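Hi R.,

Here's the chain you asked about this morning:
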Amino acid sequence: MEWKSGQIQSFLPQHIHQTETPPVSTDSGQARLNQLGYKQELKRDLSFWSNFAFSFSIISIVTGVTTLYNTGLNYGGPVSFVYGWLIVGCFTLLVGFSMAEICSSFPTSGGLYYWSAKLAGPNWAPFASWITGWFNMIGQWAVTASIDFSLAQMISVMILLGTGGMNGGGYNPSKYVVIGLHAVILVIHALLNSLPISWLSFFGRFAAAWNIFGVILLTITIPLVATERASAEFVFTHFNRDNEQGITSTPYIFFLGFLLSQYTLTGYDASAHMTEETRNADINGPKGIISSIGISVIVGWIYIVGITFAVTDISDLLDPGNDAGGYAIAELFYSSFKNRFGHGFGGIICLGVAAVAIFFCGMSSLTSNSRMAFAFSRDGAMPCSYLWHEVNNQDIPINAVWFSALIAFCMALTSLGSLVAYQAMVSIATIGLYIAYGLPIFFRVTLARKSFVPGPYNLGRYGVVIGWIAVVWVVLISVLFSLPVAYPISSLTLNYTPVAVGGVIVLTLGSWIVSARHWFKGPVTNIN
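And the predicted structure, written out as tokens:
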């Protein structure tokens, strides 16, 4: 890998042509943006740490591990946590390395769809850009919907526990209360994202610090308070096969446990979407991608191991009849304090610490959504693009912010029909995003293998090898997460992920064939 400070001049692929000499800029990211044919429209005020903070707070290991702890316990338990996390983390880093290399060459808010257009070449650029862009856009909306819905669910569990728990006559909010909480959270996030970028930068850095603080606090507090602790042998060698899902194959169970890790380690493309607001983005954008993944892998593993030392009875944590209604990590926190002090108030406070992390995770996710919508509409790919490309006098794509919040809310409405439908929708958050991650990498190692000219950050001669490994990993997890998660298969146990992803494919391909191929030409420059 190589970092070359100040290397901003002429590393354009052969098929990119400028319409005029770009304005001179002392910022390498802005100069590169001008070379790519775009004028500076957003305020470029983010440092490397701010760029990193957005991706780190979206990955938010406290959010992912906390909300999917049930899944990990069901499919493999401690072994799936401890070793699955490291395996997924290593392959995710390889995906991140490849994305960072491309980001250094094309530091624009469009990110993935722009990369696909430029790497696929002029003949395939519009189609590649269209498919990648819509998978990324829909995947991002699904991520925001799932994060804020998870927060609404956690608040509901906190209310339940705070009023006595399931076994103490506590109030269990209905699905309509949960969707109402989800709406309120989205409105607050949209309001925060309407503030100047300097405020968002502050919140992003605070969120990153809170995630570190939360991990340290919970990792130490929960095992320390618990009256019973698991042995090191249990944490590092126990494999839970009793999933009550009809699955007995050990390898199959282990691989299904990857979902916790892979769902958590997503969203780092935010560093790419924030590049037009980041100083020296051709260097700091790639650094933001890699550092957010690397630090999340390390901190996340510590968090997983720490809280798992407080697990002594997996079946009890997953029991729908416990005080938390089967919400495993809430029951773990609550019962640890209740068994020690006679009440679980401290556990509710610990859930509050996690809830704050989830809150800022959702805020940063909406920030990333709005920048992607801004860039995609700038190139005319979205309905009513002229609206979503609008920026206010503080250089914020204000319409894109509120539009993205509205879409995320509409996605969560599926939960009123059934949680199965909702889970199918949010499955796009993992597979949809990773398909969008994998496509530009695939074009980089195939169509652009010889024509790609890297920016200041590059992988040297290892770029193609790492790229192919990343592509294969994306294919593997896309297949893995589409497999059945319970037997026998019925309407209630069917994994609707392939249905949801297939629906996105049908819609994007169908819209391309029927309409978009006649008018969408891919990224459009605005320096004339």
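The chain is about 65% helix and 0% strand.

Let me know if you need anything else.
M.
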